[in-house]
Amino acid sequence: MSGRRIGFWYRLAAVLVKPPLIVLFKRDWRGMEHIPAEGGFITAVNHNSYLDPLSYAHYQYNTGRVPRFLAKAALFKPAVVGTMLRGTGQIPVFRDTTDAANAFRAAVAAIHAGECVAFYPEGTLTRDPDLWPMVSKTGIARVALLTKAPVIPVAQWGANEAVPPYAKTKRVRLFPRKTLRVLAGPPVDLSAYYGQEPTAELLREVTETVMRAVTALLAELRGEPAPDGLYDPRAAREAK
């Protein structure tokens, strides 16, 4: 199997994180057959809880293809957490600086090396009141068009019931025991965009195509229809 080996730091993280996840939560994992067995690829994942990176990482770790997340640079500053993040090969993102482009170069290099790079395209916890995916940043489109690597949409639900986003009270709700649901889908077909000039409009269109696939999977997990279009927090603020 090509790609990053499950080395010391990832195995240590698994030893620390998997037991409490197994004890505290039930799991409904589907679509693992869509995670490529070899070669570089991208995953696009929705974000609705501070807990969901652990839920998703647990899911993909069990496929044998460990992800390299693009993570906020601030997360690398605490000594213990930073050491763990660097040891497991996570990629720091320096937002709104000239160093932000380095994260994309590192992501492209990782994919060319046969690894998986995991994107949370929304860039932060969704602001949608009903926790559907929102309008996302275009970094994933840039990397997808540069590498032409498979882009696997992944939806997750359930972590938000245990650790609700932006909760002011009852921030952790472990009982009754929640189910962490993760569903991966087939690669998003982006071939129509290859070879085109990566204008801002094109990048937005590619990103929306990916996020529509993620939203459709989330609708399947939730058992309810998704809203038309992606939630735009800027438009919502201007409408007030």
Q: Can you describe this structure in just a few lines?
A:
The chain is built from 8 helices and 7 strands.
Shape: globular
Strand line-up of the largest beta sheet: 1-7-6-2-5-3-4
Helix content: 25-40%
Write the CATH homologous superfamily.
Glycerol-3-phosphate (1)-acyltransferase
Structural Rg: 17 Å
Instruction: List the uncertain runs.
Output: none
Q: How many separate helices?
A: 8
First-residue to last-residue Cα separation: 52 Å
How many runs of DSSP E, i.e. beta strands?
7
Strand content: 15-25%
CATH class: Alpha Beta
- Elements, N to C (H/E): HEEHEHEHEHEHEHH
Largest beta-sheet details: 7 strands, mixed
CATH topology grouping: Glycerol-3-phosphate (1)-acyltransferase
**Annotated CATH architecture:** 3-Layer(aba) Sandwich
Q: Return the average pLDDT rounded to an integer.
A: 92
Total of domains: 1
Structural class: alpha/beta
Keywords: Acyltransferase, Transferase
Protein name: 1-acyl-sn-glycerol-3-phosphate acyltransferase
Pfam family, one: Acyltransferase
Domain Phospholipid/glycerol acyltransferase: 41-159
Question: In terms of topology, how is this protein built?
Answer:
Layout: H1 8-24, E1 26-30, E2 41-45, H2 52-61, E3 67-72, H3 79-87, E4 91-93, H4 100-112, E5 116-119, H5 139-147, E6 151-157, H6 159-162, E7 179-184, H7 200-222, H8 233-239
Parallel strand pairs: 1-7, 2-5, 2-6, 3-4, 3-5
Antiparallel strand pairs: 6-7
Helix pairs in contact: 1-2, 4-5, 5-7
